[in-house]
Write a structure and sequence with these properties.
about 30% helix, alpha/beta, 13 helices, binds iron/sulfur cluster, pyruvate-formate lyase- activating enzyme
């Protein structure tokens, strides 16, 4: 609904413009979008790589949208049959000091609330040498930190020949590039192998940070979500990480108000996150995705209740985050500097994923510096350093 509103708004603002739609909605419901007279073309998630080559055909004389038959607008293939990753070699990121490298796309897990396996297809990995080339290129362009991203990066390499694991990829990156600092994107609980945990907690070139989707602390909710672990297994993984590196940033995703979630289930989530050494929480109230099995579950929760539960969890998350960041006051942290603020101060991100601000008169954008942490910023979510070294 929001996308369609935006399309109409863009057209009203400039009726001569061509509107090209892509992404998950376009992949799943191309005909719905192609039927909108304002839309000129609809590209699927794989075909969007070709948008630039199509642009010459979209001249102002070729009237936007209206003159094209809906079926001719659609460039969307069956993504479930696609076996390769989009080729996205990127050398720089505007306004970002950290670089993001996609190593994988798609997912085979079919969690009951998630549309991604239908919109992005099966799990596919970027071949090892392509990842290495991309990172070498980014290092040559001055990037100090690379974040490995994907839909389900813990599945990395299972489709390659020979097969690889995320831990092996990580070791290859460290061995074959001069990258200063590597960060792993979100990792599913079942893919936190002992090997990967040891690698992240022991190697100084890997940021001490795990982002793990828990989604619920209730086993019965996890089961209905089609997530194949228990709250206790999750607890053990987090405790293993903490026992190996008590300063590691552990971020957790949670969904509140999943269909059938009782007060008891919600309390199980609260209890679990209160007990765990969590650095931050990302909480999302459940929202129905048409086409998923959770969307047709009979016991949907009132959205207002899902929001109330999300607020309760976020409050716990905020307290946990403050407890976590306070531990670094009086220590030195390495930050990759991101941007200047209007008050002559700079903001950077530490390896522990903590925003740090500090004054500096020089242009230090993109630099990697050690800073002495003096206090928690008054906004409560950042640390402050006195100066840059
Ligand atoms: S929630 Fe994550 S693991 Fe589950 S289907 Fe979606 S992308 Fe896959």
């Amino acid at each position: 609904m929001q996308s369609r509103k935006l399309i109409r708004k863009a057209y009203r603002l400039n009726p001569a413009c061509h509107i090209i739609v892509t992404g998950c909605y376009a992949q799943i419901n191309p005909r719905q979008l192609a039927d909108l007279p304002e839309v000129s073309l609809v590209f699927g998630n794989m075909e969007k790589q070709n948008i630039v080559s199509m642009l010459p055909e979209l001249t102002p004389a070729n009237t936007p949208g209206k003159s094209i038959a809906p079926l001719d607008k659609i460039h969307v293939a069956d993504i479930s049959k696609v076996k390769s990753c989009p080729d996205l070699h990127i050398s720089s990121f505007a306004e970002h000091s950290r670089a993001f490298v996609q190593i994988q796309t798609g997912c085979d897990s079919f969690c009951s609330y998630c549309i991604i396996p239908y919109a992005r297809g099966r799990s596919r990995s970027v071949p090892l040498n392509k990842v290495i080339e991309q990172i070498k290129d980014l290092v040559a362009h001055g990037y100090h930190e690379v974040v490995l991203t994907g839909i389900h990066i813990g599945n990395y390499g299972r489709d390659l020949n020979p097969k690889l694991t995320l831990a092996q990829l990580t070791e290859e990156i460290l061995g074959r590039t001069k990258l200063h600092r590597l960060r792993l994107g979100s990792i599913e609980p079942l893919e936190l192998s002992d090997e990967l945990i040891s690698l992240v907690t022991e190697n100084k070139r890997i940021c001490s940070h795990f982002h793990i989707p828990l989604q619920s602390g209730s086993d019965s909710v996890l089961k209905r979500m089609n997530r194949h672990y228990t709250a206790d297994q999750f607890r053990r993984s987090v405790e293993t990480i903490f026992s190996q590196d008590s300063k590691c940033a552990i971020g957790i995703d949670l969904i509140s108000g999943f269909p059938g979630e009782t007060e008891q289930d919600h309390m199980a989530s609260i209890k679990l996150v209160e007990q765990l050494p969590v650095g931050y929480l990302h909480v999302f109230p459940y929202s129905k995705r048409p086409g998923t099995s959770a969307a047709i579950m009979v016991d949907q929760i009132n959205p207002a209740l899902a929001k109330t539960r999300a607020a309760q969890l976020r409050e716990i998350g905020a307290k946990k985050q403050q407890q976590y960041i306070r531990r670094f006051v009086g220590t030195e942290l390495e930050v990759v500097v991101e941007k200047a603020r209007s008050d002559n101060s700079w903001r950077g991100i530490s390896a522990e994923y903590i925003p740090v601000s500090f004054p500096c008169n020089d242009n230090i954008s993109g630099k990697c510096l050690m800073v002495a942490i003096t206090a928690v910023h008054k906004n409560g979510v950042e640390l402050q350093a006195a100066h840059c070294n």
